[in-house]
């Protein structure tokens, strides 16, 4: 089977009518709810948001899983004053919030998943932005040339990119976050101070995803990542996260997301 990245065709809008944000969910039952717009068949970048929503206990609608065409309708509507570039984006309290790290910044401030003081909030946000850089590099192991083309059409480039990723880039990111945990003045339980933040939830997803995509390498690396391994287990055991992971809301890893298992790539180096 040939595997390509999620690359939807977005058509131009044919109208310029400004939308009432309560219309964006397309039904009165959804109005005023927190609504996540993300592709229905993958975890992708939307999963970092889902984990935060689940842990915060926020009632939300995963709109793409109900009607994937709603995402395209939103993206092409020229009447939206603050249009997002691409999913994921969140509609909450009549705000349209684009970009994973930006959404998590909002959720952290409103639902206790980040420190409320400026220094703590900026440190947390900075860690999430670093994770966003890591996610791009993970994705580029299998699509280093063109996101809209098939993996099989860029296999040679993917092998070269993955060789460097496994030898240099992944260890650099992982050791960095291991050090963040080790140097936390409050201890290595959480990444920021003495409480769970959205960064911990995202680190859980990174570890889980790399275990799926590169199991051979993760098995070797984890001996040097005791704090990250413990954090993954700690987050997985949180009651709300544990329930989510066992529910149909958690989309399994597959061949269309950011984390993809290609045995030939895991066998490199």
From TrEMBL:
PROSITE patterns: GST_CTER (PS50405), GST_NTER (PS50404). CDD domains: GST_C_Sigma_like, GST_N_Sigma_like. InterPro entries: Glutathione-S-Trfase_C-like, Glutathione-S-Trfase_C_sf, Glutathione_S-Trfase_N, GST_C, GST_superfamily, Thioredoxin-like_sf. Pfam families: GST_C_3 (PF14497). Residues 32-115 form the GST N-terminal domain. Residues 121-265 form the GST C-terminal domain. PANTHER family: GLUTATHIONE S-TRANSFERASE (PTHR11571:SF263). This is Glutathione s-transferase protein. It comes from Ralstonia solanacearum IPO1609. The lineage of its organism: Bacteria, Pseudomonadati, Pseudomonadota, Betaproteobacteria, Burkholderiales. The gene is gstL.
